[in-house]
Every structure is written in structure tokens, then in C-alpha cells.
Design goal:
Layout lengths: L6 H23 L1 H5 L12 H26 L6 H27 L5 H9 L2 H4 L4 H29 L12 H24 L3 H9 L5 H12 L3 H20 L22 E7 L13 H7 L3 E7 L5 H10 L30 H8 L3 E7 L19 E3 L5 H10 L4 E7 L34 H24 L6 E7 L4 E2 L5 E2 L6 H4 E7 L6 E8 L3 H8 L22 E4 L9 E6 L2 E7 L5 E8 L15 H29 L3
Parallel strand pairs: 1-5, 1-6, 2-10, 3-4, 3-5
Antiparallel strand pairs: 2-9, 6-9, 7-8, 11-12, 12-13, 13-14
Helix pairs in contact: 1-3, 1-4, 1-7, 3-4, 3-8, 4-7, 8-9, 8-10, 11-19
Amino acid sequence: MPENPHSKGLRWFITVFAVYASTCLIFGWVRAPLFLGVGEDGWPAPSLGMMIYLLYMTALPVALWCLIAYALACRMPGNWGMRMTVVFLLLMLTAIELDHAWYGMSGHHATWREARLFLSEDWKLHYGIRSTDESWFMQRMSLHIIGLCGVFVAARLGTMWERGQRCFDTPFRRAIALVAALFFFDILLAGYEVSRGSDQWQAVADANPLRINSADRLSARLFSYGTEHDADLDAANRAFSQATQDATQPHNESTAKFHDASAHRNSQYNVVIVTIEGLNARLIDSTTMPFWTQLDARSMSLRSHYSTGNVTEYGVLGVLYGAPPDFYRGTLTVPWRRQLSFDKQAPQHGSPYIDQFNQHGYHTRLISWELSSWANLGVYLRNFNQPPFETSDDWKSLPVLKQEMAAPGPHLVYMHYNGTHFPYDHGKQYDRFAPEVASNYSYASWRMRQEAAAITNRYRNCLLELDMWLQTLAESVDMQNTIIVLTGDHGEEFFENGRLGHASTLSEPQIHTVALIYVPGESPRVITAVTSHADLMPTIMDLLDWPQPVAPFGHILTGEVKNAAAIVAMGNRPNPPNRWAAIAGGYKTVLSEGDGDTLRIVQLRDTDDKRVTYTSDPTRWKSSFAAAAQLQLHLRAAAQTIHMADIRAAMPR
């Protein structure tokens, strides 16, 4: 076809933009894994040759996408190709900046499901986005607009450079074929390096929003197929399959065996359960949280405690339901204007444990930060028998708690404290640990890892405020007649593995937290065995000398803790979890959904998140595989229950 007369200017514009985008990638979006790996992430300083190749593999996708853009734009009539290219590139830069901000906090690129969740919720409240972040984003986009203007000026100058036209003498088809071949070779090389355990190559590839990350992972799997690592996982999965079969056989001892409660216990104790947003166990000490430390010394202290998930909704549901949050359906449970008909789910009734309190004449109430609107958790909190009180200020919940506990009759109160959530805002009177980042600090900054100590100090100051809040809470209740349960909804990572926050991995800092159970008149006790959110409600039932409303998934902690294990779900909004970790015996088995209702082991780690092989010592995985087998049987039973409910709903009445 004849050449568009505007193709010359378009070629220069896209070429100069490729240089501009490559510069943004190298010194902005991919800067951290390229240049800041020495230290927190533990990568050695790369050789000059390796650094050159890492820069090359960063910029190569820009060339490919720019050639594709040119192939489409040059076929548009008149000057429309240039106009549409400018609009497309501006939208692309906008999407990349938003994705980069998300990646900086979560450690993974935003998916369509996360974007859908973001658009359907109160994002300013739940995602910690403030006016300063909006100003930062507008500044970034203003710079990009100026950059595109500079690209346009440079392109116009290029069209007047006659000798420079020689770089476009190569036929277009040959150029795009060459770049595509180089890109394909680069994916193979990156997959080979990742399969050999080169984390920096994977980090550089993953941080690049213009790379096809799924192709990198597929390449790594191809190179690992048939390797010792792959054979080790196959052996582990065969052992896991056998463990699942063994779990279906009757045993003399069951994990659901009840401990006989002591006769002297009061079956009408008040109960206050508090989950604390993102509680990092490593940072709790007598300096940061003196009241917690004192109460912990008088309580049942759970030192190796795990959440039931790495996100708030999974952790909260694990506490209240005493089970893995496999039943969670997130935004699919609540109609909203963009919801598809096949997404709709039947409403949830509520926790059977709260029903048990209701049946025993308790006033049950949610007094909390605004929890019901977060990830549609209100759908699962329907059976409290008193009207909820929710506030955006944690301190405003305490007078309501005091008033509630002063009313006649026994009470169950569930509270969620949000003050320790990102971006870690706290009162000015708690500025003890310094230096700390400013209150308007942009957590999307490329200097974030360099500010790790100051960010951690800001969180520690949040813990100071939390400790005072907990002390005020204790003064609001009758400690002689109240069971108090305190725990984190999940953990919070502070660069222990190079990340900040939670919801991104099943690493120890994100899923391991701490818990205590204060029981009036009970002797203090330290439990070092693995415990879980799924153990808390069954233990409370036993402390009150009540029957268990359902067969406990977890363990009752009032007696000797046997078969200690924890099951943790990986965030998968807005769908049910599809990735799990089974922790027992000092080892972590990571599982993912396979075909049908079968789980498959995808990683074997210790509790320091280091890779461990199965075949080197199969016996050490016995307890972890047994916990994973219990999870698999639980998921199969739940799937069968849902299937039967669907059949009954479809039957004509």
C-alpha cells in the first residue's frame, strides 16, 4: 500500500518516544530491582555485562510495542495516526503510573479484578489514598505531558535531519520480525535464569509493566520441567495425595476432640474480641507496647500465631467463623450496577459461633472502625443481635463500648482497630520514634526502600497509640468478668523480604501475627506451638463450658495443644481463595487449586521463607502435609454442600 505522507513524522515520534519510555522504565518503574538490590533483597552487585543485559531486557519490550503501534497508526488516513498515537500513549502512561503505585505497595501489578474492586469501593478510605497522593499523581502526569511535548519537538527536528533518515531504511517487516525474535529469545533467556533461581532477573522482568510476565513464567516452567526441583515437587504431591487418602480413614484421635472445661469457670463471662489491622509481631516489645506486654504476662499468650489470610476479610472471617475463609465471595455477594447475573451469590447467614452467643442470651454487637463496608464484610456479619456502631475514628468506639458493657446482661462485642493500617497515621502526641517519614509521604516513591527505617518508625508510633487505646479499652470493661481476645487480622511486612504492607504474598511477616487470650482468674500460660485464628472461637466456647456449634476446624487451646497447625489463604479478591499455605512442624506447604477440587503443592518452604526440598527428608513434612490434607477434605466437603444447595435452589417449588 502507498506510504502515508505523515508516516515520516510518525516514525520519528514513535522512535523518540521509545527512548523516552525506556528512560522512564530504567530510572523510574524498574529502578529498584535494577539498582537497589544490594542489601534488603540480597542480590550481589551485577557485573558490567549483566547490568548491560538487564538494561537491554528492560528496554526491549518498548521497541516491540512501539513497532506494533506504528504498524497500526501508519495505516490510518491523514494525520489521524499521529493523533490517535498521542492519545494512546498518554493513556498508557496514565495506566502505567497507576499500576506502578500499586506495584510499589503490593509487590504485584494491578489485575483487572483489583481494578474492578478499586472502582466499586470507597477507595480513599480503604486504600489510604489522600489528597497528597492525588497531587503527586497529577504532578507525574504533568511531567509526562511535558515529556510528550518534548518528544513531539524532537520528532519534528528529526524529520528535518536528512542523514538521520538512513536509520529507517530497513524494511518495516524485517525490523519487526527482528525485534520480535529478540524479544522471544529474551523471554527464553529470562526463563532460564529464573529457573536457576536468579531472583534479580525475575524482579527486573516482573517490575516492567510492558513485559508479558505470563510468558516469562511459562518459560521458567518449561526450563524447570524435568529438573530436580520439578521432580521434588512431583514426589511431594504424591506424598500429599497419600496423606489425603490417609486422612479419610477413621482415627482413634480426632482434631475435633473437645477438652472438658473446668467446672469453676463462669459460663456468663463477657467477651470482647479485638482484631488489629496489620499487627507485626516482631515490632511489639515493652518499649513500643508496654500495656500489651503487661496484659500478655497475665494471659494465654500465643507466640506462634497465624492469621487465616493475608488480607483483612480473610483474617476477620477466620476469627469469627473459626474456619478457613473458603466461603468468602467478596463483592460477588452484593449487587452493584456492574455486576453480572452469574456473579450473584446467595446471602450468608452469619457465624454459627455468634448464633451460640445469641442462644445463650448474650447481647452481641459490632463496635468498630467502618468494617462492614470493607470488601463487603457486612454480608458476613448479619447475626449480631444489636445494632452496630461503626466509625472512622477508633477512639470514638471506646465510649460506646463502655456504655454497652454497663448495660445489664452478658455481652459479646467484636471490635476492629484500624489505626495501624497503611499509611500509618497517628496522633501527634505519639511521635516518639524518630526519624519517621512525613504524614504526607508518598509510598509510591522510588526511595521507599531507602526510607525503610523511617517508615518502620512511623508504624511503631502507631503501635504506641494502639497501646494507649488498648489500655483505655481495658479500663472500660470489668476485667474480673471479661474474656479479652487480642490479635492482628493478619501480619504486616516491613521490608523483611523486600516488601511493605500485606496482601501480596504468603511470606511469614504478612501471615504471622500474635495473639493473647485474657481469662479472669486463669493462670498465665505461654503457647509456643503453632496456633491459628481458627482456634480462637472453639477455645472461647470451651472457656465458657458451652458445646461447640460445629465440629471445630482448628484446635481447642485450653488443654494440651497437639497436631498444631495453621491454614492461611492468599488474597484473591473478589473470588474465594485459590492459594493456601499449611504451616506445621516448622515448615510451610504452599498449595494452589488444581483440576477439579484437588489442591497441588507449588512451593515448599520453612518458616523463614527459604526453599526446602521434600526428598532430602520426607519425614519432616508429615505434619504439614496432614494439615494440608485436612484443608483439602474441608474444601471438598464445602464444595459438595454448595453443589447440593444449588440443586435444591434449582428444583421447582
